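Renewal narrative, Specific Aim 1. Our central claim is that a sequence can be written position by position from structural information alone. The example that follows is taken directly from our test logs and has not been curated for this report. It begins with the C-alpha cells describing the chain, in the order in which they were read.
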C-alpha cells in the first residue's frame, strides 16, 4: 500500500486484537492494523513480545518510509559507546540496518520505544486510545514545522 509522504492530516489506524481460528495457529493472539479505508496495513501473531509495538513499527514504515530510511544515519555504530537509556541506546536496540542499508524497526521492544523514536527522530507524534476491549486507535501526527494543517484550512 502506497501512502503520500506529504499528507498534512493525521493518519489514523485501528488496531484489533483477535484470536486465530486457523488450524496451524489455533488460539494464537493476532493483532491487525487497518487504515481509515479498512485496508490491512500491518499484522503480527503469537505472543511474548509487544505486539502493538510491532504493528506500530510496521505502520511507521508504511506511513513515513523516507523518515524510517533516514534513521540509518542516526543509529550508533557497534563499537560506539553510548549511555544507557539515552536516545542513542534506544536507537541501537530498536533500529537495525542491514548491509544493504535497509532499515528495520524492532517494535517488539515496546510501543513506548516506538513512540519515542517516532517523536524524537521522525517528528511524528503517536497517540494511542483504547475505546473498547480488543481495540486500540493509533493516531500519527506529522509535527514537522509547517506540516500541520487545521481542518478547514
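The sequence written for that structure reads:
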Amino acid at each position: 500500500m502506497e501512502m503520500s509522504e506529504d499528507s498534512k492530516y493525521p493518519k489514523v489506524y485501528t488496531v484489533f486484537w483477535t484470536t486465530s481460528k486457523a488450524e496451524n495457529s489455533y488460539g494464537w493472539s493476532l493483532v491487525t492494523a487497518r487504515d481509515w479505508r479498512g485496508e490491512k496495513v500491518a499484522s503480527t501473531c503469537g505472543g511474548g513480545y509487544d505486539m502493538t509495538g510491532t504493528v506500530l513499527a510496521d505502520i511507521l514504515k508504511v506511513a513515513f518510509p523516507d523518515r524510517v530510511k533516514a534513521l540509518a544515519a542516526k543509529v550508533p555504530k557497534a563499537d560506539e559507546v553510548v549511555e544507557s537509556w539515552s536516545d542513542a541506546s534506544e536507537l541501537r536496540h530498536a533500529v537495525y540496518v542491514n548491509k544493504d542499508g535497509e532499515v528495520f524497526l524492532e517494535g517488539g521492544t515496546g510501543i513506548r520505544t516506538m513512540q519515542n523514536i517516532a517523536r524524537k527522530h521522525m517528528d511524528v507524534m503517536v497517540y494511542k486510545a483504547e475505546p473498547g476491549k480488543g481495540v486500540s486507535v493509533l493516531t500519527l501526527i506529522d509535527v514537522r514545522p509547517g506540516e500541520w494543517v487545521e481542518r478547514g484550512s
